[in-house]
Amino acid sequence: MLQIFHILFSCCGFVFLVSVAAYLLPQLAILFAKETNFVKRYGRSWAFITGGSSGIGLSLAKKLGRQGMNLIILSETEQNLKNAKAILNNLFPTIQVCLICADLSKDPNILAKTVLNQIDGLDISAIVVNAGYGLFESASNPSASTLHMFHSNIVGHQHLINALFPILAKRRPHFDGRKWRRGCVIFTSSVTGCFVSPYNAVYSATKAYLDHFGECLSLEASCLKIDVVSIRPGSVKTKFHDRIPRFFVMDLINLFQQSPDAVASRVLKSVGMFVKVDCGVFAVLVELMNKLVDRNLYIAIAQNIYPFIPDIKKLFEENGK
Question: Which of 12, 187, 188, 261 has the lowest tally of Cβ within 10 angstroms?
Fold first, then answer.
């Protein structure tokens, strides 16, 4: 009997090691890869970036602009758009920069029509679903911002994908010397999409949706010669984190904070190689934890630990009052 248990545990250990290796090897391969040149891979064309006026989106815009890609940047703040265009025109005077001022949380049908009207006739080879609105609040005491976040992160972006992906699917393929490719779709998800935490339920769920949608879309997209990447960054030094309350758990996570440029670089390294990519030490640690600990077990442990963490406990007490 002991021998049977020994064999079973050995088999389980082998399967776990294979699973970990299968996860880590692609992540390491991306680390040492070169950034994909979009002009060479898809031809000189346009990249459409939501949230491209700051943070990860602006870093991606700079990298693509440096390669010679023309840029379409969508943001809800006109001044941020003008600032971003000034930066990009100063750095790369030979490219074109088109600005679209729109709120992703508003009527999605009007949003899609507005975008289609402004990009009419432009040869778009890259769609970057990057804009993200997030906040830290209790599900038992939601504000109007909760639905604003839901519509911004999911509804608005889904309508844009429905409008733009068919155009990309009909784009004439470009031959890069080895393969014919039409373009790519990039999703900026988040490690929170697979990491359960309190006061973050809606934001985490919206990022989980984008992450899984990217995986599902990749199967159909590959048949159409379209690359798909869904990247899950950990903590990133952007204005987003300025809105999150400071407490002990976040301070620990922010020890592994990375720059927007590092995330943008990993995105470009991933294109054409892998679909699902983690970015940053914290994101990798979370995924390894998910492989080691069953989700139900983790939730059960967290349910018994979180209420006693001083910072979290304080938030619960304030919510109760």
Answer: 12
In the block, residue with structure tokens 């991606």: 60
d(CA 311, CA 155): 33
229, 273 Cβ separation under 8 angstroms? no
Burial (CB count within 10 angstroms: exposed 0-12, middle 13-18, buried 19+), residue 242? exposed
Pairing of strands 180-181, 174-175: antiparallel
Non-local CB neighbours of 298 within 8 Å, separated by 6+ positions: 196, 289, 290
In DSSP notation, 294-320 reads -HHHHHHHHHHHGGGSHHHHHHHHHHH
Quote the CA–CA distance of 134 and 190 in Å, as a whole number: 11
- 119 within 8 A of 102, measured Cβ to Cβ: no
- For the chain, give the number of residues: 321
Task: Say whether 68 sits in a helix, a strand or coil.
Answer: coil
Quick one: tokens of 239? 């204005």
Task: Identify the CA nearest to 195 among candidates 289, 260, 115, 105.
Answer: 289
Report the SS3 class of residue 72.
Answer: strand
What is the model's pTM? 0.90
Helices (H) and strands (E) in the chain, counts: 13, 9
Which residue shows structure tokens 């402004």?
118
Question: Are 69 and 95 contacting, i.e. CB atoms less than 8 angstroms apart?
Answer: yes
Contact 280, 235 (CB under 8 A): yes
Residue segments in the chain with a per-residue pLDDT below the cut of 70? 1-2, 5-6, 9, 12, 14, 238-256, 311, 315-321
What pLDDT is recorded for position 247? 59
Q: Is the dihedral of CA 109, 115, 120, 125 positive or negative?
A: negative
Residue 135's nearest CA partner among 144, 125, 123, 122 is 144
Quote the tokens at residue 49: 């970036």
Indicate the angle between helix axes 260-270 and 55-67, nearest 10 degrees: 50
Q: Are 157 and 104 in contact (CB under 8 A)?
A: yes
